[in-house]
Here is the input.
Amino acid sequence: MTAFLMRRLANYVVLCLVATFLAFSLASLTFNPLASFAERTPPPPAEVVAAKRLELRLDEPIPTRFTGWLGGVTKGDFGTTVTGTDISSELVSRVGVSLRLFLIGTTVGVFAGVIIGVASAIRQYKFSDYAATLFSFVLLSTPVFVLAQLLKYGGLQLNEAAGTTVLYFQGEATPSFQGSAGAALLDRLQHFVLPTLAIALPLVALYSRYQRSAMLDVLGSDFLRTAQAKGLTRRKALFKHGLRTALIPMATLFAFGFGLLITGSTFTERIFGWYGMGDWFVYGVQQQDTHIVATVTLFVAVLILISGWLSDVLYAALDPRIRVS
Here is the structure.
């Protein structure tokens, strides 16, 4: 088991470096970081532009620039933005925002999706199954930015009905909030509910469909009938053997889905004013900043690396047929 996991980890590290290099190269080939200087009125002196070009090492070959940037990354230095802002300090705050938002949203979405999917499979063609199917299809066909606006409208109606502010729509917390620790925590929760729902609800719809299909494949299997024939009740056989088997093909989907969600939920971050990695990636593209794009790509690649490695661990734990040396 250990040797297998270490080999997989080594493969993921190589893929992580390749993905980051490709992103760095593509950004370097297509971006013009000095374009913003030309748009200034009055334009800066030629020597200022030349100094900036030298600072950004734009005349060096891409592999050389990437090697130098990666060498700084190994020391915790991700370089500076086009405007001279330190990326490392910005990275810490951005990562914290994204992880706080998406870890809870993804956890809620995955667990709720699995429960609904399993229940739908067990009660196939019953009213609850049809209701869950309709709920899932409506959510899956609703764009994220529309869903976010609907949630904001629902929160507004809730506030009007309650006669006070129950939910907030912008930011992580109220600016310059003054109050006790408990009041501060409540304030953050009030800001947290709507963006978390915007992330969790589509995941509930997606994972419930996959889990229902996987569970239906298991319900008619021979090993489940054998377990019941040996004396296990249907409920115990379903949860001890059926659910465990049905979760096996979902393990990879769970793991890699989280890594891709970070940059895939830019709309959620921007609509609700949570300035995380997805929002930063869009900003980096707008500013034609290679270092920001490469940093976000590296972060997502590392996240997928960890997720993929954990999916291997989960897969091996769920499937006893796996034999590795």
Summary: The chain has a mean pLDDT of 83. Residues 308 and 323 are 19 Å apart (CA to CA).
